[in-house]
């Protein structure tokens, strides 16, 4: 068994809570590593938190001012030599299908690092395997979930984060990323996606209210849409079933705004149901335009509301951005709303960033625009790049 296969075997044989111990022992034995550290990105996408038995024992490092953050942001290995210790520490991204999870830092003796063949590409493969194993292990342990927290989550935020499919996803036809702010005290915004061999379904949801009530409402609507999607229903029928579920539970006293999109991966044809406040912008050839839809009633407002699909086309090179009302209605310190013009400027300014980084960049600019004005609603951004199918 070669050394790479031996490390993979050790990871897959480890108990869910001992993945870091297993990968450390294997890397020391097979690669001559002298130190290993695993950090996962926090919910706010601002810091990298150490995975350890007692959370928050080790100081976090900031993404935007650290060597670990450089590897996380560039998604490339970053090596840093320590002449005094005669070692080289290599920071490597841990990413699963486009979803950036964190950074594995391995320290090697400088002579071991310099020898041929350089082990860094193999250790990067180990990081990929480690990321998959963490996702599986999270079913059975809280260790990695706790490592993502820079602060305690409210119960509503806990419910909303557990509802998300991830924060990014990549396939040959598309890449997408999404982010919620505030990360630790969420109201009712949410996003969801699912990709099959032929289609991508993407939904952005805004449940009315705040706290637990908003989280319960959004959970009901998202799971109703998932149930309809998994039953093979069309996009309009997914909206209808979720509408009936929300109305049956709340009798019209609570409702959910949602934008439902279904992409044909082969043709770029997009079906859309616009049932509320989330809005869509398209960047094509450096030109930004709002994609208009016929407004339909939010889910659960009335009994048996009919919904209809609209269509538009995406082309290779298109970028789509979806924002909640907490983004485009956010007010500055003098009371001016962020609006579509500022959002269009932000979309153009971030056009060179990958989709996984765009939501956070837009929300940082939004925070600068607000100044000292606190958020009084969730701010949600989802970005999708369309590559098309050859």
Automatic annotation (TrEMBL):
* Keyword terms, alphabetized: Hydrolase
Q: Does the keyword Transmembrane apply?
A: no
Give a GO molecular function annotation for the protein: phosphatase activity
Q: Which domain of life is it from?
A: Bacteria
Instruction: Note whether Disulfide bond occurs among the keywords.
Output: no
Positions of the PPM-type phosphatase domain: 171-386
InterPro entries documented for this protein = Bact_Sigma-Reg, PPM-type-like_dom_sf, PPM-type_phosphatase-like_dom
Q: Which PANTHER family does the entry mention?
A: STAGE II SPORULATION PROTEIN E, STAGE II SPORULATION PROTEIN E-RELATED
Question: What is this protein's name?
Answer: Serine/threonine-protein phosphatase
Q: Which organism is it from?
A: Streptomyces coelicoflavus
- Native organism taxonomy: Bacteria, Bacillati, Actinomycetota, Actinomycetes, Kitasatosporales
